[in-house]
What does this fold into?
Amino acid sequence: MSGGCKDTPVLKERGQREVFCGLTGIIWLHRKMQDAFFLVVGSRTCAHLLQSAAGVMIFAEPRFGTAILEEKDLAGMDDANTELDREVARLLERRPDIRQLFLVGSCPSEVIKLDLARAAQRLSAAHGPAVRVLNYSGSGIETTFTEGEDACLASMVPALQETQAKELLLVGALPDVVEDQALALLAQIGIAPVRCLPAKRAALDAAIGPNTQFALTQPFLGETHAALIRRGAQHISAPFPFGAEGTTLWLKAGAAAFGIGPEKGDQVVAAPRARAEKAIAAAAQTLRGKSIFFMPDSQLEMPLARFLTRECGMRAVEIGTPYLHADLHGPELDLIAAGPTISEGQDVDLQLDRVRAARPDLTVCGLGLANPLEAEGLSTKWAIELVFTPIHFYEQAGDLAALFARPLRRRALLRGQHPNMLEAAE
It folds into this structure.
């Protein structure tokens, strides 16, 4: 394979987009950061979105909330900053466990040009050092939904302490069980010390300096990557840890950055890699030879396409992503065999035309497109499910493959039971 897809001309599209709100990142971030609180400055619609998407029990007290912008705030009749200061003071009085408070911008707060960066500085001075107040934008006006996490982590980087120590920084919010698996593998290889961004508690926050090596676990952290580079940290470039191959290459790149030879990595990963390959093979029986089309949505598209084509035997028709980041996605493009269209951005009508023309076996897309495509007889996989499901590293590799095999198995079952219904739909 000569150069993979790295030299493939990129189809860049700018038009109507189908995106989900960046506020949804709070749903996994508030679970990860145990002494943080996310205060959305937005409308009742923002509050309803978070409550419905997070499924918070009525008896639970979550680590997020919404400071509602009323009509008087939007019309400029009340001083929104004064009200925000009052609400923050009430919140911190009621929740003394909070050590880090994020003011999260929304579409309404950005429309009225509410300066949350200045508000964060003012509130940090008032409530620090016990509480650190930061801000970022979760607005869905110009972003895709995974950028919420990217903006959050990028906002944390300038506030981290300085260090000269050589450390590995693991960047990206992972479920605790997955993060523990990653830390265990790194420790067995001999990579130490390892810090995490985000940390579970503010007291565990990493320090950053010129000897910090950082490895991304999520392919949508472009702004965080840039913020860490500005602090002098060094990026370990590697494919992302999806599947047996991706996980192995990611771990070996980390080992190499710390002067550890590949033999040690091979020894440590032999057993978990074999388990992962066996689990992947079971799902690959359904996936092998099938075609797949990625609509741009979560920014997970490149590493997932690499995993599905190389480890599961699928054929990619088009791999669309909201943003194509050369430093982050380059190692993935090197491994994806030439052939599929690589597209960046979205003109949803044009992409739907290409999906209908190609009629792939599986289309990965957002929630808003899945049902219409299913009604046209096309099998789909919700892109957002891939963000909320543990899919990183060896122990989750079989589950990742099964997520794509499931809709194809369901379709095969329906064909056997109701062939006339499916033929009419097609």
The chain has three domains: 10-16+276-425, 22-143, 167-264. DSSP finds 18 helices and 14 strands in the chain. The CA atoms of residues 145 and 155 lie 17 Å apart.
